[in-house]
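EI: anyone free to look at a 99-residue chain?
SC: sure, send it
EI:
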Amino acid sequence: MSSLDIDEPEKIIYLQNGFITSDKLKTQLEIIARVYSGTFTMRKGEGNVMFSGDGYYDSHNDSWAFEKALREADVNGDKLITKEETGNLLSKVQEEYAE
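SC: here you go
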């Protein structure tokens, strides 16, 4: 369970297309989806990256963005999105999208 960054089984979240993660990591994946959809921007600051919302993210109309985040995070194809996979994707997105 530590690979999901959870200590309680009830915090496991079952997502579309058979993906599994924790509630905490789902929030991080949603942030990545918002970056992909263009409703979140990322700005480089001193030693960190700042996020700011710009517009409305609709999880139904922008579901492609969340699906993209899931597919890109799941590098080993086991449909279990771990904190390491999510962290690696977040770093990649920061490098690519932070202004």
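EI: The first strand starts at residue 12 and ends at 14.
SC: 👍
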